[in-house]
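A further point concerns the way the authors explain their paired sequence and structure data. Nothing conveys this as quickly as seeing an actual entry. An entry of this sort, consisting of the sequence and the corresponding backbone structure tokens, reads as follows:
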Amino acid sequence: MWIEIILFVVASFWVGLSGAMVPGPMLSVTISDSMKKGSKAGPLVVFGHYIAEIIIIILLILGLGWLIKSEIVTMIIGGMGGLMLIYIGYSMSKSPVPEKNSSKENLVETRGSILSGIISSLSNPYFYLWWATVGWAFMVKGIELAGIIGIFGFLIGHWGADLAWYSLVSCFASKGRYLLSGKRYRIVMNMCGIFLILLGLYFIYSTIIK
């Protein structure tokens, strides 16, 4: 049985990695935060993502999966989430260029990255779609395989993929902040901001304007 559990964890990791590598709100937030705060921002954004996923898992376990799949709820999430992404994108594009020698990270900045992880997850309607389909299917498979151990196995693989990928992205982005100064830094931040704004508009269009 343990071999099956290990294989299940590995499968969960690769499925999670395939989802993590798809460009989305979390990627833009991770890049922008890492360029401003350093490589610690990536794991903090992922921690916020974990909090959002725990909320979804609790809802699914409580039998509220129908709420996640509801068309009305999806429209509300898409509209509200789209507006939130537009706001974050705008704020990101207007953020000041950090000083090159500044390495201080205060408590507000730390909380900001965690909160960014929560918001970038919950504002994405495809986040709910993934958990209502692929995520829940893996949860059920884990329960069938080894009960609560199977659930933890899935989460270890899935969360491990998120942490590995976004930590890598954060590492490269944080190094880039020392290579990109002034105008180049501003171009990267504008690109991340515009991407989130366009993504927010797409979410609104795809969920409300049909």
